[in-house]
């Protein structure tokens, strides 16, 4: 009798932790473990602003899956559809080949994508901070704008190249704006022919407060820090329209700008829509034990799942943060093993450890276990937390070494050119148009069962 097949979709915090824990819990040969991921690493998302600004190298935040997983087969591709009735997942491999992966138990951890709104031009001219490729592209792009502005004699061109807009006053947006503003300020001192006064960073958010989750005191402190550095923060304002060289805000201002970074929240992976299951604001509804109601053998967790927060009670859901995703991965592994062995499943429960926001240099605001910290103590807590959350000693050493080198030697302003020729939109980087309709998924799975060859649609659907 063949061993049960456990298929994990997604190699992020939740998926990798689940696979790692299952390898420890299950005996050799007790189950077949397979993990579907287009990348062979777990991306440590909270440090992407550091990569975008060049403080950290990309390798520092990309933890190789094979350093953590010794007995799990890795399918190099992205899941583009799920057929729960047939217990099958359609996977588009990185070479374009489409295959069907069968399962007895399915763990869904597809994560999230940058949330888009129906705003003219955003889909064409905005880029997010959700992938390693986006972070690398942003760094090259920002430095190229400085180089081009320094070489230009056209005042209008210089103005548009030296204004940068970041949309989203959450952690990702605030940290990205803070780190990149420090980078451009330092670069302006070395680039001849560049007036530092012309460099303007705008942080825009429709919310009335910056990072309201921090509370009034820390939120206002973070606002004060970034404004003292020269960031222009506009709250209660959003983007009305974007073009190649302008960004129009909802208050009527038109900013000459060729850089629009979009961090205005996240949305669950479009993969969730292929299941036809109940959702809550796009996230897959799950029980406290992480099972999906009505779907046999399916577990869901991480950003794409509406996991009840039993610590807060009422109708609270766990926020889409790394600390919850990691711990949900551990809980899911225990429950998958329990289901395999016919034992009762355990509800997921975790008390939030707090928040850290690294603003660069010695500046940070942190709230570990409810204790409010600012300045150097907050920075120490923030970086200690990140080092602890990185999953290998190699990644921790690289990250700490990069931080130390940057603190001593300062920034280098080098364009790598790795992303220079690729399209730069949210869709291109995050593959949001790669997913199939439920009907297409069913047709492909049926063809696979019958041994027929059915090609994937030539025009991927957008959800």
Automatic annotation (TrEMBL):
Gene3D superfamilies: 3.50.50.100
InterPro entries per the UniProt record, alphabetical: FAD/NAD-bd_sf, FAD/NAD-binding_dom, NDH-2
Pfam families reported for this sequence: Pyr_redox_2
Domain FAD/NAD(P)-binding, first and last residues per copy: 5-329
Keywords carried by this UniProt record: FAD, Flavoprotein, NAD, Oxidoreductase
Top-level taxon in the UniProt lineage: Bacteria
Stated family: Belongs to the NADH dehydrogenase family.
PANTHER family per record: NADH DEHYDROGENASE, NADH DEHYDROGENASE-LIKE PROTEIN RV1812C
UniProt-recorded name of the protein: NAD(P)/FAD-dependent oxidoreductase
Source species: Streptomyces aureus
Taxonomic path: Bacteria, Bacillati, Actinomycetota, Actinomycetes, Kitasatosporales
């Amino acid at each position: 009798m063949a061993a049960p097949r456990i298929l994990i979709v997604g190699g992020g915090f939740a998926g990798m932790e689940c696979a790692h824990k299952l390898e420890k819990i299950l005996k050799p040969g007790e189950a077949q473990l397979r993990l579907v991921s287009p990348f062979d690493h777990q991306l440590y998302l909270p440090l992407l602003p550091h990569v975008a600004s060049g403080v950290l190298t990309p390798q520092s935040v990309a933890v190789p899956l094979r350093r953590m997983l010794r007995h799990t087969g890795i399918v190099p591709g992205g899941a583009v559809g799920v057929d729960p009735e047939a217990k099958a997942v359609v996977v588009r491999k990185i070479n374009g080949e489409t295959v069907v992966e069968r399962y007895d138990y399915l763990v869904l951890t597809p994560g999230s994508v940058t949330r888009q709104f129906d705003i003219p031009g955003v889909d064409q001219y905005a880029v997010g901070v959700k992938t390693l490729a986006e972070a690398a592209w942003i760094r090259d792009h920002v430095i190229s704008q400085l180089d081009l502005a320094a070489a230009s004699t056209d005042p209008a061109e210089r103005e548009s190249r030296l204004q940068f807009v970041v949309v989203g006053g959450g952690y990702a947006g605030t940290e990205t704006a803070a780190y990149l503003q420090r980078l451009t300020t330092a670069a302006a001192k070395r680039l001849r022919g560049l007036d530092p006064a012309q460099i303007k960073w705008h942080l825009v958010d429709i919310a009335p407060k910056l990072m309201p989750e921090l509370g009034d005191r820390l939120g206002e402190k973070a606002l004060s820090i970034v404004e003292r550095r020269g960031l222009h923060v506009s709250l209660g304002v959003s983007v009305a329209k974007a073009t190649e060289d302008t960004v129009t805000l909802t208050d009527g201002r038109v900013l000459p700008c060729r850089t629009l970074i979009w961090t205005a929240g996240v949305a669950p992976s479009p993969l969730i829509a292929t299941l036809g299951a109940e959702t809550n604001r796009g996230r897959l509804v799950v029980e406290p034990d992480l099972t999906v109601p009505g779907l046999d053998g399916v577990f869901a967790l991480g950003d794409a799942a509406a996991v009840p927060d039993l610590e807060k009670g009422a109708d609270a859901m766990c926020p889409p943060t790394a600390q919850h995703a990691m711990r949900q991965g551990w809980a899911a592994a225990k429950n998958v093993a329990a289901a395999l062995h016919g034992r009762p499943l355990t509800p997921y429960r975790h008390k939030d450890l707090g928040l850290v926001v690294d603003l660069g240099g010695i500046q940070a605001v942190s709230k570990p276990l409810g204790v409010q910290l600012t300045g150097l103590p907050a920075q120490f807590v923030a970086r200690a937390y990140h080092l602890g959350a990185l999953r290998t000693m190699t990644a921790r050493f690289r990250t700490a070494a990069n931080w130390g080198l940057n603190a001593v030697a300062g920034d280098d302003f080098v364009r790598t050119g790795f992303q220079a020729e690729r399209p730069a939109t949210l869709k291109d980087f995050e593959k949001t148009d790669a997913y199939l309709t439920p009907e297409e998924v069913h047709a492909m799975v049926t063809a696979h069962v019958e041994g027929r060859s059915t090609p994937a649609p030539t025009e991927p659907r957008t959800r």
